[in-house]
Amino acid sequence: MGPVDHDGHGFIGTDVNFLFRMLDARPLRAALAGTGADLAYITSEYVYSNIVCRHPSMISPDDFRPIKFQVKRTRAQARIYLPGAPRLLPRG
Length: 92
Fold this sequence. Notes:
Elements: E1 5-6, E2 11-12, H1 14-23, H2 26-35, E3 41-44, H3 45-52, E4 65-71, E5 74-81
Antiparallel strand pairs: 1-2, 3-5, 4-5
């Protein structure tokens, strides 16, 4: 969630890079493969704290599992949600 530009070839920006790093996170891929879920959602801690937690009637914040990941030189924390998967997800 932040500024995004378009360079004529696609979208660019720090937040775009962070999104793709989250999508490439090993814990996300492992959770998706390990549960057999068809869909996974990963969100930054910022979006989790400021959107998910502030609107618990839309989706329970308890359904998100915290993860730590490193992709390239990016080390960060995020939250994973797998609709229809058991709450206790395998550690990745």
